[in-house]
Amino acid sequence: MSEDGPLSPLTIGPRELVWGARTYVMGVINVSPESFWNGKYVEPEVALKRGRELVEQGADILDVGAQSTRPLATPGQQSRAGFEELDADEEIRRVVPAIELLARELDVPISVDTYKAPVAREALKAGAHLINDIEGFRSDPAMAELAVEFGVPAVVMHNQRDRKFHDVIGDIGAGIEESIDIAEKAGLSRDRLIIDPGFGFGWTPDQNIEMLRRLGELRELGLPILVGTSRKSTIGKLLDDAPPEDRLYGTAATVALAIAHGADIVRVHDVAEMRDVVRVADVVVRGWPRE
Question: Which residues are catalytically annotated?
Answer without folding.
Answer: 232, 267
